[in-house]
Amino acid sequence: MNRKVVLRNNILLGLSLALMVAALYMVFIYVPTEKNMGVVQRIFYFHVPIAWVAFLAFFIVFVSSIMYLWKRDMKWDRYAHASAEVGIIFTTLVLITGSIWAKPVWGIWWTWDARLTASLVLWLIYVAYLLLRNYASEQAQGARIAAVLGIIGFIDVPIVALAINIWRTQHPPALIFEGGLGMPGLFTLLVSIAAFTLLFVVLVSYGIILKNQQEEISHLKDVHSEEGG
Amino acid sequence: MENLGYLFAVYSIIWVFFFSYLFYLYRKQQRLQREIDALKKDIITGKSG
Question: Inter-chain contact B7–A39, Cβ cutoff 8 Å?
């Protein structure tokens, strides 16, 4: 493993955790309690940044997939793969945290609302993306099919983002653009977004290290079998 | 402080997820590194033997 990369990742992880502590302080102490929803509204300050990072992850899958199909360089495939894995973790958390927020506010855990359904579809698309890779008979074929799905699947991201504007949904509107948060809320949200974005960078970076190690193992096995034979 | 349980559940789940994932990545990285070292050792001893 490259020591410089490991050191850089550890520094980024430390920075990300420090920002998380700052975000926690702001969410629980600094930001005032919302009048209508009460303390449960504070879930918003982690739910929204996690959703933003999930979109970012799938955007990276989209761009890396285009680059892979264009350049046929496995480096791009590794970026896409690592980003999709982390994107699924974040999307899973978006669905779980949204559902827990919905129970006290709407009185139900889940409803087939346009935003929620599109988010679930997004999660399913990228789970299929990972499964496809695992079932492909050869690496290049899996990478090629996954790249196509990574590009087509991204269509669902703007659908999730714009669902609240296109259809009548139960999901709350984007408070950030309507000025409904106030300065403390907006500042807290930005710190939380920064913390999760940094955490995302660290996780993807660790994921890429793993993919490089797997590549090295496969290369060493080839050398080993050639020498053995 | 109504609904504090929901808030607690959300934050617990988030941290359990992230720390478990980080731990998984760390363990897998260590395992793969051991495999790389073993393969390199095998290749070197194969060459010298």
Answer: yes
